[in-house]
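Support reply, case 0932

Customer input (verbatim):
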Amino acid sequence: MRVVPCLPSLLSLLLLAPGVRPDLQAAEPWPQFRGPRGDGTSLDTRIPVRWSPTDNVLWKTVVPGEGHSSPIVWGDAVFLTSILPDSGHRVLMRFNATSGRPVWQKTVLEGDRDAMHRENSSASSTPATDGSRVVTSFQAGDRVDLRAFDLDGRELWAVQPLQFEGEHGYSYSPIFHRDLVLFDCRQEGEAAVLALDAATGRERWRATPGKRRISHIPPLVVREGSLDQVIVAGSDEIRAYEALSGDLLWWVRGPSDVAVAGLVHGDGMVFASAGYPNRSRMAVRLSGRGDVTESHVAWSDWRQASYVPSPVFHDGHLYVVVDEGMLFCLNARTGRPVWDHRLGGRFRSSLILANGHIYATDIEGKTTVFEASPAAFRPVATNDLAEFCYTTPALSGGRLFLRTGSHLYGLGTR
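Our regenerated output:
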């Protein structure tokens, strides 16, 4: 693994007093896919809005192998998964967030490359961390494989709780909630929502979806009243479970069968999108119980719906980039468009939001930064790394971490 530091960054480090370094321990972590709340938002006010292959690049590290998993960050540690094409090994890697240098690489699984959709990879599931352990998710033959490692790369537990069968291949990302690892695997095999004990991997509860169909959305945990709701979507349904017990709270039909775009929430609602066989989106109020299809659907629509990229919510509005490059600002209460803008390009990366700015990265590595404003599309910067990119950036400690087809970037102002 090769690290290419930026010369001004090296000079700034040399000028620091001995032992002085940025205080990353106090930074809000980015512990899972789409960040600490699972909705693409960060509280960090220092994230850069402008960069290029030479500007505001603190470091650039070659990542071995290939994969579409996104980086996660905790303190001074950045974690990634990858598959090594020559050996077929699935690996978990830790990098230093300040320098980009590799800390360790751990082989999680050995075996042949899996069959999958041409736009998938054998390392598409983003890992998750609670600051004490990192959990990976891979396909192991015809089984689902979940493993936990400590921050030094030592394996803590391993389970293979489900049989797996899916024509699109494997892409299922875990999340942490309190002392649980939550995992939703909607597939054509042994589909289930699982809650595992984070310390041991022991199953605490399991829920079976009403329909087996391929979807790839991580669970979203939302506090509603006195309960933490674990919300899952796909297979033409949305369901909410009580986080600690697994009791089913409510369910609704829709928006469609195959879903990839992640869930977001705001103003007492959860927003979901699906892409096959029909592109559609919907908003559901969180206060219901039982079948709420007729009572708690705030709105549904087949227009302005994304298949893969996840939206973000901000100040009563939903911002959506569809796969073909159209950007929309929607009124969250009604679902109606407020404005639209053609960005162009194709998108697989999810939107992220920090300090009133939204970041949209296309598959060619071009990131458009614009204001989260319902007044109009207000561009801030266009930043082009000119590298293939299917992943979603991570934000932490005043830095943006972006994985491209061959590199991991640490972007920030000096």
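We compared this against your earlier run and they match. Two observations from our side: The first strand starts at residue 3 and ends at 5. Residues 231 and 347 are 25 Å apart (CA to CA). Please reopen the case if you see a mismatch on your end.
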